[in-house]
Amino acid sequence: MFTLRPAREADREALYRICLQTGDSGQDATGVYDDPALLGHIYAAPYLTYAPAFAFVLEDAGAVGGYVLGTPDTRAFEATLEREWWPHLRTQYPDPSGVPREARTPDQRLAALIHTPRTAPDALLAQYPAHLHIDLLPWAQGGGHGRRLMERQFAALREAGAPGVHLGVGERNTRAEGFYRHLGMEELARSPGAITFGLKL
């Protein structure tokens, strides 16, 4: 029986694993990256560390099969990571800025995000200051579990005073796009390979 609960420190390894196994536009990225922890360093672990009140997991028979992670204040979260999270990782992963973009390995492309993190545009944050990430393994998909996770996160962000939330999705992940639209999220922007969705809370 699936249960939805707040994430705890003991879930950290599962968050890394799920992030990797859904990291190729929703598909397993285990064979894509040499370092299996890189995706989780960027897209999962920081939320458990610095925004634990907005980290929820889906569990069945003691196994975690999905999560939703977020923060009500994207700009403050970015500043926290710049101050406390990225510096240590920058000592572990060389800056690939000297390698032409088209020649970078998948690991180097992620390392570039550690050394030069993406920041959300001011215009987006004016109305949608919160953001989130959601990932579910195949065995946890369906049955309305994704919706339950999202609604739990929406409620937490709303209670924290966030007027709107945004997220990004790979353009190839058409299943996720349909899911977000079904939840009432609207497309806000499109860039090469990615779409930004938003929802007023």
From TrEMBL:
Q: Name one GO molecular function term.
A: acyltransferase activity, transferring groups other than amino-acyl groups
Annotated transmembrane regions: none
Domain spans labelled N-acetyltransferase: 2-201
Q: Which UniProt keywords apply?
A: Transferase
Pfam families (UniProt xref): Acetyltransf_1 (PF00583)
Q: Which Gene3D superfamilies match?
A: 3.40.630.30
For this protein, the record's SUPFAM superfamilies field holds: Acyl-CoA N-acyltransferases (Nat)
Checking InterPro entries in the record gives: Acyl_CoA_acyltransferase (IPR016181), Glycosyl_Hydrolase_84 (IPR051822), GNAT_dom (IPR000182)
Q: What is this protein called?
A: GNAT family N-acetyltransferase
